[in-house]
Amino acid sequence: MTHRPTWKRRLALRRPSKRGCLRLALVAITGALLWFGYRVATWPDVAALASTNPETTAFIERYREHERAAGRSDHAEWRWVAFSQISPHLKKAVLVSEDIAFFDHEGFDFDEIRTAIRQAWAERRSLRGASTITQQLAKNLWLSPSRNPLRKVEEAILTAQLERHIDKRRILEIYLNVVELGPGIYGAEAAARHYFGSSARDLDPRQAAALAAALPRPATWHPGSDSRGYQRRIKTILGKMEQARLPSL
What we know:
By secondary structure, this protein is mostly helical. Helices cover 57% and strands 3% of the residues. Helix 6 (133-142) crosses helix 7 (149-165), helix 6 crosses helix 8 and helix 10 (205-212) crosses helix 11.
């Protein structure tokens, strides 16, 4: 007569052996070391950006790859211009909408992070974005939109390096030249020409607000969109621009 194993025997049978646990641990450690070695080998030269413009960005390459996979042209609209050739209205619009404390923090706005956490807790909703311009730049240049914890760690390290090696004016210049402002449209100059038929230096306050308002959702929020949320954001940014007192831009 065959006896069914007791629950204790069944539990014991299901437990991994010490040898199995050791094998899994070795596989995990090996994987972590390989990942770490790869990241060390491919880690960007952050300090070089102090004097050299990036040739492309992770987000531009991601867009191009997506377009090729869909059988479309992988052309991205992108044209670099000097900081002095970007309208002060756009600089102000981006600062008031994305990172009003940009010139006061060292890459991380901890007051904004605490506010976001309190709001999320009080309203029982997911945590809203509280990334600074420097954090956004690190992500755009070298990373991805993923919320993977490892990606966030990399973003934090790159953000600290950007702030250590590059001055604020240069960080803002790079950001305004690489950030996505519409599907396949990157940087202030390309966006100004695409949407308004003008150069970035000639943008007026409303045009500047319209571009800055696109930053959270460039795939759907951009000049020409009739989204109510987008139009409300433009008005909000214009109001902040009138009230803000910022350094000379």
